[in-house]
Amino acid sequence: MIRDVMKTAVLILVLLASASCGSGENSGTSTTSTYPRFAYAANYNDGTVSIYSVNASTGQLRHSGYVAAGTNPRSVTVTPSGKFAYAANYGSNNISVYTVTQATGALTAGTAVATGTAPSSVTVDPTGKFAYAVNSGDKTISVYTINQTTGALTAGTAVATGTTPSSVTIAPSGGFAYVANSGDNTISVYTVNQSTGALSGKTDIAAGTTPVSVTIAPSGKFAYAANSGSNTISVYTVNQTTGVLTKGTAALTEVTPMAVTVDSASRFAYVANYDSNTISVYTINQSTGALTEGTSVAAGTNPASVMVDPSGKFAYATSFNSYAIPVYAIDQTTGALSAAGTVSAGSGPVHMAMTSGTSAVTYVPKFAYAANYASDSISVYGISQSSGALTAGTAVAAGTGPYGIAVDPSGKHAYVANRSSDNVSVYTIDQTTGALTAGTAVAAGSEPRSVAVEPSGRFAYVANYGSSTISAYAIDQTSGALTAVTTVTTGTGTNPVSVAVDPSGRFLYAANYTTFTIAAFVIDQTSGALTSVGGTAAAAGTNPVSVSTDPTGRFVYVANSGSNTISVFSITQSTGALVKVTDVAAGTSPYAVSVDPTGKYAYAANSGSGTVSVYTIGQSTGTLTAGTAATSGKQPRSLAIDPSGKYAYAANYYDNSISLYTVSQTTGALTAAAATVATASAPLSLVVCGTLE
Length: 693
Hints:
mainly beta
């Protein structure tokens, strides 16, 4: 009985979170282009919004960090221009306001604005002038005017709704607003004053039991409401002059439909079924709006919403208890969905929005940096976007024994772990030339060997081999300066030599050289502090020296120099704990492992055999299938793939050089350039950074 009550409480929370998931509010998209660019997911449990870039050809989502929202964000939307984003925070009774960086999709927080009690949905009208939030706690709709320069919201006069409003959407014409009232089984219809955004003339029409989501087809002709209590979709014809809804024949769903959306051409509808863990697929009768059910597809555990991208080629679900976003390709003839991958999200993703633009997102390489252990310096290079070739710039001094190097996600700052001087060097990166300007170094533990920056760019972590600790630092967002946050142990005598953060920013992993284990930590996304996942550390091979996460956030790879293997682990998304999948053979003494940006290929630098192993990654299990190894210089110790995925680089410790490879986009195979590029003495670590266009 207690378990049933708890499940009901959680379900009620998620029902309210399923708001504004349909194309009637443009699914938070701009309709000015068919190129999807950036996606955003509201994560209820951890109070964040995950940021992704979108591959317009494959639909793949690529992690681009996250930002803090308020307490329990339930809904996220973007303006049609793609300039501003908003998140409705159910637990803190406000709306987070963000400015969107057009080139990168990054979100910069503005001043949050108050709502009514327990806002469960936020949407923007098609003109981008007004925003609306339904407040389930006090039965109101908050009305706002959007400042077209800053995105700031100015409150207008709130209006009453039905009982427990869960979702709000605006007609494509901008003339009418619709609210699903889950507490009294109705849809409220309002007229929108298109000069002021004010709502008036409330009328109600019956829905099914517990309507939690309402959407208007982009054609403006039909409306649909997901009724979680009766497992149906209410179908309506819309009078486009008056906004009045005329009820048609409801369609059956699977168990607990949470959200309904319609594709951009108004041909297909999709429903997220929370308790049957599926997405239902329907074709829309173009004359009546009636729904004909197709074949449903699996959608992880408890899908809370579903969204179609602006091009109509791909669909996305937020799997609340899988902490993931399944991706689907849409058959353009039938509307059928086929699985096209999965990417991790924050904790409890409930809703998504997406921007579009006049071109697809493109990643281009800019600069490369090598930490030279024996010469206490950092080599600087510019990268040719057409060939991947490196052009040397001016090297800069590091501390003593630079061992590991990392660049923050913005590409503005670089950090170097100096093993012999027990500190971390800090640099500012010239955005035009790639030149490094040194800031103030900070103390680390004993023998720091690896440094990583988490995906929001707010925290950095250093593995201290000699003291068996991880140092955590806060990053000044202007100067890049580091301020110590805390230090945690990896266990006595563990000697961590490598550290990596998963792309969702929730977990950190450290390779313990002496105990042959991988330590796992949960990252506090407010303070950056680390808490051990607990339990027994995951067993790796002999002398693990490098740990890397895949770009989807589902797998971890470890290079074991003593056993000549790569260990493969899956990440438990709810806790961060690692589950061993398998070990695969590498070359002799693999010292580094890296995954390409698409998550399709992995590579290992084999110091003992002077080769780079090539693997294809199994997309469902993370397993590695070996291809043909490529030759490198002597003792390759570090490996980097550029952000475009076209070029790979290996730092050769003994040769004092960098080997360059072209990456086959179809097989992952490496083709070596004719010549290597010189470094200073004993390059141990290599990093490549780039930009988005």
